[in-house]
Amino acid sequence: MSAPHAHDHDTETTDVVEDIVPMMPIVLPLVGAVLMFLLAFIAVTMA
Question: What distance in Å separates the CA atoms of residue 25 and residue 43, rounded to the nearest whole number?
Fold first, then answer.
C-alpha cells in the first residue's frame, strides 16, 4: 500500500509576492523619495 502524500493539500495557499505586486506603483516611488531624502540629508550634514 502506498501512503498518502503529505504535500497534497486541498486548500489554496496565498503567495506573499502576489499580494505585494498591486501595491508596487505606490510603494516604489515612496521608498525612492525617502531614500533620496536620506541621502541628501546625509550629504548636507557632512558638508
Answer: 28
